[in-house]
Amino acid sequence: MIFILWRIYSKQNADVIILNEEEFKKYLRAGEIASKVMREIIRIVRPGMLLIEIAEKAENMIRELGGEPAFPINISIGNEAAHYTPLINDLKKIPESGVVKIDLGVHVDGYIADMARSIDLDGRYRTLVDAVDDVLNKILINVKPGISAKEIGRIAETYARRYGFKTVRNLSGHMLDRYVLHAGYNIPNYPDPLAIWRLKNNNAYAIEPFLTTGSGIVSEDKNIVSIYSLKKSKYKTGDKKIGSIIKIIEERFKGLPFCGRWLKDLDVDLDIENMLRSLYKEGVLYGYPLLSDLPGSQVSQAEDTIVIYENQVFVTTRR
Question: Across residues 311-315, what is the average pLDDT?
């Protein structure tokens, strides 16, 4: 999942990072849940289906299997690349044609699995979908402790070009940490000369190529924001109701992204979506605007989570 924001912890800069067996098993369990949910969602997606129906099915299934959503499911259509989750009472539907990206996250006690797959709705974009799957597979075959992020980007771009597509240069994979979706390092989809850092033992990473028929650069639509995370927990407000909601957000999501749908259980006489937009504009929340390539283009995405444990690479989302 792409959220262009990350927090850097001293743990990530330490020479020795310890990942114990219990933590490793939680990563594996999160990946197993994510994989099961993804298979079911791919099976049921069809033209005319409400996006909110898909979202609620996926997120409820995650909880039923013993996990929690690590972020609101992203359902991106056509030239959209990331950051759209259905609003409360959303009426948006799956179209008849195009590429649909399903990006979901699961955490078990904060240990995250992040995965995405693309669906070609009518056969017109089969090559684009197959290509991104192949690019991801080529990366996973080559990934190992000590590989540089730049080298992963080189592999992604090389194989994308063989299919005649561009990678999206301003979207990337990322390091994961407990309750942190973007943990300080990114994994580019092109050979960025600055990406000299190397994948290390006892760490988790999301490998996430995006391919496009468009420009290879996505832009934000700041008028479309449906996903948020908490920026300021100590926010002074004269409205006790708003203050209590901010406290609930802090306790419930522990810094991970969330959406209005996840707060509709609150017994408050408020328009939740408008409240979140207001808090975003006031700087209390981070907001993640919709990211899209050029109109008329199509974007595909594939993503898996890996954990390097005892100097072996485990793809947690293929279990």
Answer: 98
Token pair for 131: 């290509």
For 316, the enclosing helix (H) or strand (E) is: none
In the beta sheet, which residues pair with residue 68?
107
Q: Which residues are catalytic?
A: 103, 114, 174, 182, 208, 303
Q: 71 pairs with which residues across the strands?
A: 105
Helix (H, G, I), strand (E, B) or coil at 262: helix
Pure H helices in the chain? 10-13, 21-44, 51-64, 126-142, 149-162, 240-253, 272-281
225: helix, coil or strand? strand
C-alpha to C-alpha distance for 182 and 222, rounded to whole angstroms: 21
Nearest to 132 by CA among 210, 246, 31: 210
Domains (ranges, CATH) in the chain? 10-221+298-315 (3.90.230.10), 222-289 (1.10.10.10)
What type of residue is 68? E
Backbone dihedral angles phi then psi of residue 223, each to the nearest 5 degrees? -85, -10
Write down the number of H helices and E strands in the chain. Answer: 7, 14
Token pair recorded at residue 80: 């959209």
The string of pLDDT tens digits covering residues 114-127 is 999 999 999 999 99
C-alpha to C-alpha distance for 92 and 74, rounded to whole angstroms: 13
Q: Which tens digits make up the pLDDT trace of 284-295? A: 999 999 999 999
The helix (H) or strand (E) run that includes residue 15 is none
Tokens of 82: 């990331």
**Is the C-alpha dihedral spanning 22, 23, 28, 30 positive or negative?**
positive
Report yes or no: 217 and 314 within 8 Å, Cβ to Cβ.
Answer: no
CB 83 within 8 A of CB 292: no
CA distance 276 to 260: 7
Please provide the DSSP assignment of 179-218 as one string.
Answer: TBSS-S-EEESS--TT---B--TTEEEEE--EEESS-S--
